[in-house]
Specification:
alpha/beta, globular, single chain, 4-stranded antiparallel β-sheet, Rossmann fold, 10 strands
């Protein structure tokens, strides 16, 4: 498989001088599901924000979808981000129904109504939210809210989906539903996915490739310190 994301020698320091990332190397192939696992405040969310050009590193190279993200001109940013789907850690729940919110997004991106309808039907079936399509988003249960945000991020068929802490705050059964939703989206859409989580158990259970983030560096196998936690 060909590379979609290639990150090398990445370093990030906060404006206050705190070093978050020291030497990060990361690759994600087209249509691959990868979990980025690390403890709280290890820099997982920072990596996702660097990939979508919300933050800029002090050093390193970031290539996404054949674009050098660190050198991306502001005029090219909207088109680049349209190629991405982003599921943030902090959910923003609109006061609309599930189907209304999806339709609004696709309409704002310029999809014809007939195309938008079929795209909405497909994504709701994939994440098993068809039965709550007419429900207001804030009235969904916690797992459904996570799955809705996943559907919203992927409904326009991006090439890369960035998912931040999808299991945070969920009971076991709800986290299980969200994992099944992530796997279903990946299998049906064949979209590349980078899922950042502190929950190593769910990452292992996914069967996907895991990259570990520890003390500002990435590892293909769990560092001894992380494995002991």
């Amino acid at each position: 498989m060909s590379l979609l994301v290639q990150v090398s020698e990445l370093q990030f320091v906060t404006p206050e001088g705190k070093k978050i990332l020291e030497d990060v190397t990361l690759r994600v192939n087209h249509s691959e599901l990868v979990f980025l696992v690390g403890p709280p405040s290890s820099g997982k969310s920072v990596i996702l924000r660097l990939l979508c050009h919300e933050l800029r590193p002090q050093r390193g190279q970031i290539l996404v979808d054949d674009r050098n993200v660190t050198r991306l001109h502001a005029s090219k940013l909207p088109a680049f981000r349209r190629r991405l789907g982003i599921v943030p850690q902090e959910l923003v729940l609109p006061q609309r129904t599930v189907v209304e919110t999806l339709a609004f997004k696709l309409r704002s991106l310029g999809f014809p109504p007939e195309d938008a309808t079929s795209m909405i039907d497909e994504v709701l079936e994939t994440v098993k939210l068809r039965a709550v399509a007419e429900t207001l988003v804030p009235e969904l249960d916690p797992a459904q809210q996570k799955l809705f945000t996943l559907a919203l991020a992927v409904c326009h068929n991006p090439v890369l989906l960035l998912v931040d802490e999808p299991f945070a705050g969920l009971e076991y059964k709800d986290a299980e539903r969200v994992l099944e939703g992530l796997k279903a989206v990946h299998e049906r859409k064949r979209v590349a996915m980078l899922v950042a989580t502190r929950e190593r158990g769910w990452a292992v259970r996914s069967g996907a490739r895991i990259v570990y983030l520890w003390a500002g560096r990435t590892y293909e196998e769990a560092p001894a310190e992380e494995a002991a936690l």
